[in-house]
């Protein structure tokens, strides 16, 4: 059992130009006091793994590139096996400001008027107090479509349905650590829809994010258009799977940690 209850998960693929600076920022005492840091080196072909291993943090290497979602799921499995109560996932490109970690962690532990804590806390770029963040035309179209579909399927307004900045409690990450329960490439708006339909308590808080300055995004070139189409089909499939066929609804336990 760990003496820290929070694990920060960083999936990284070919991020040698960004990972070192990110890990240095995570050396801040206020972060080190509350969290352990885990880098999932997802089969990088550059020096990402070497740079990460030169730090004082935990590194898990995938022999092959398995995808962003598989990297996150490896982190969930690690957290489950090592007794963590919470995980916060941030991107290895440095776009997620490390200052978000404490805010998300605090919200995960904050009880509401019924004495219940959220299961999921999303860091949003588009709430009132969020810092302005530029997005491409394709992503703007995606945001509108994803927000609408999530609202139609769940009745919830999610301002930033494609945020990758998530905080999860043990109830959620232990569920998604299970075989075939996570999207290996793009766990995104589809998983937010799923978490809401499965009854997890989901909240959004303002977040600080920065544009990528080095390396190549997994959403570069024509990939955003492919991503939007794939996500649309995936969101609809999630709704059908849960609302019509009730798949996985019995697997979500009621135990609170």
TrEMBL record:
Alphabetized SUPFAM superfamilies for the sequence: Nucleotide-diphospho-sugar transferases (SSF53448)
Record-linked PANTHER family: UNDECAPRENYL-PHOSPHATE 4-DEOXY-4-FORMAMIDO-L-ARABINOSE TRANSFERASE-RELATED (PTHR48090)
Positions of the Glycosyltransferase 2-like domain: 8-173
Pfam family, one: Glycos_transf_2
Highest taxon above the source species: Bacteria
Protein name per UniProt: Glycosyltransferase family 2 protein
